[in-house]
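Researcher: Re-running this chain for the archive, since the previous output was lost when a drive failed. Same request as before.
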Amino acid sequence: MTSESWRNRNPREWRPIEDSAGADREAASHEVKALADVWSNEKDKLEDARLLREFNARLIRSWSIETGLIEGIYALDEGVTKTLVEHGIEAALIPHGASDMPAAKLVDVLGDHMDAAEGLFAFVKGDRKLSNTYIRELHQLLTRHQETCEAIDQFGKRVEVELSRGEWKRLPNNPGDPATGKFVHVYCPPEQVDSEMDRLIRFHAGHDAVPPDVEAAWLHHRFAQIHPFQDGNGRVARALATLVFLRAGWFPLVVKNNRRKEYIQALERADAGDLRPLIKEFGGAQKECFVDVLALGRKVLDDAGGQGVAAIISDAAERLKRAGESERDDLYVVARDLAGRAQKRFEAISDELNESVRGEPVRFTADSFVNMDEQAHWFTGQIIETARALDYYADLGAFRRWAQLRVRHGDTTARVVVSFHHLGHRNRGVLAASAFVQVRSKGEDGESEAVVLQPACTDVFTITAARDRKELESAFDRWLEAALAIGLEAWRRTL
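Model: Regenerated structure tokens:
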């Protein structure tokens, strides 16, 4: 089956899976790969750190909770979810009414998910090859406390049946539209599951050179196309994607329930032959993990400070050395160039906007951080608040650049500011760009002042020296345009 025929396939018509992972290699995220390379060089320094072990434990708990939430197996209040991720999965931490499943039962189900996640780590450590036998074992573990599921009988009616854990489906499990009673997608027929799963394993075994985010998306989607089990296929699919990432030294795939809409849309696009949205979705989840774990460096050193003078002196010596080398560091050169691109874009749009509002009491200006002594302290609080909102640590001590677009309209001043600084501890080898919009307006009394501050980006933009320069600049330009749109919209709402 060709790629073109796959793209034109009818979702109501079943066809065998296609091996097209290689054709999607160009969709791999250069940004995530660069972050993975930095982490590969840094992780040995944190391997025995308590915070890293806690980070991995929280990630496993998050995976265990979210993989069931996104399937609708249970409901759980967002606040309770955060509590369980931070403090452990215990019935005592689940208040009455926080879930539609009894707390004890929920803990059992989440325990199954956690055991499966731990098993994935053990599977990778044991260097085992993926097989149908292991996939059935995985399903059996994930559904250990699930007794029944929905199926379609010989009359086309949906019925509740006993779930055969670890066994291929015996009845069709095609999703339907309750309003019409018609199937909206046709999965592999039960009699074809054995052969299709053999094809899946064979194709996957030949994908050694495929980037992790591409292979994880491909394996997840093709497995979901087969839907070999009566129920639990989504959980197994995300576990298989996690397996790909763990083999690469990356992190478990946590698809959060608040990303369910984007995740489902990406799967639908993959059904139509376009795997890129799913690759991007998975890459975004990995980026979030890399950003978080690289930021641990500062916290680990903070902890180390309590261990004695030697740790403090060692850290100080390292900082002094880095300060002397900073201007020669390729990473700083790249960041300065990107700051220059932001400045030029702000100047161009300032001229363009001033021309479009000629005669109106509005003035657009653009400037940037150029003098360490006079402007080093500008926007410090706003940058830190933005970093907190985006959930990362901003180190402003060794390197700082910013560019801003400013709008003045009567008593209102709006600023869209892009800041460049270290992500986490400065020696992690990753710089970050973040953006915020701040709107200040005087009250009717002319004395009081209202201030609105919010991020002008949905995620932090990461900068590493290893990223391809053209790809980095192109990705930054797209990120910057999105930040501008968010910032200018915040100003427009004040008119």
